[in-house]
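Example 5.3 — Thymidylate kinase
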Amino acid sequence: MAAQETARRRPSQRSHHHPQPRSRGRPVCAVNAKATGRGSYSWNRPTQGGCRVSGTLIVVDGPTAVGKTTACALLAAGLRRLELEVVMAGEPSASPIGDVLRHEPMGRHDGQILACLSAGDRYRQLNHVVTPALERGAVVVYDSYLPSAFALHELAGAAPDFLRTLNRDALVPDLTVALLADSSICQARAAVRGDQPHPAAAFIAQHAVYDAVLYELYESGWTLRSQPADGTPEEVAAALLQAVMQLL
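Solution (predicted structure tokens):
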């Protein structure tokens, strides 16, 4: 594998390094504790009766206000034009738990509460939406998954070990595309869409933690690809579609 033959680097926009997709049937290895300093973790692949399911789980992730939701909608539309069955999911969901996550004010030290609510919302979608879709061979496009959740919850005070244990039964996507843009771009986009104002330092901190989380997941065996998100939504979606079609 090309990524094994060269020095490992974090999948960031600065390096423009794109880890090559791993074999879909390859087992997930434990996180390299020395590389990350966050402990050793393992992850689950989607299976049915002990066999790999026929569907494909695609995650579009990234820091706050990078453009994930728009990219997911355009990607799903592109896949449907190719006559593929596409199921969309994302976090937070439209469930009552998701409503709490969207509207309940959380303080800086509510990381554990936030993480538990988020995990419940996530497992509900995985069990009732994602897994059935994968079992029938659909492509699932998932808006915001573990990388962004881990970064936000760590910043809210949750310990990495707690987060990994809470999500140990979460599925590993076939491909996770991390949309990346400068923190100042994300801050400006958040202001345009009417988000609660946050200082520039908050966006910078989130990007730093997010980059560390990506590196950890890459080291643990996740198939990750970074995609610059400073272009138009259509340009970003076209790059996403190309990456997904290489996998399919």
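Remark. Strands lie at 47-48, 51-52, 56-61, 86-90, 139-143, 175-180, 224-228.
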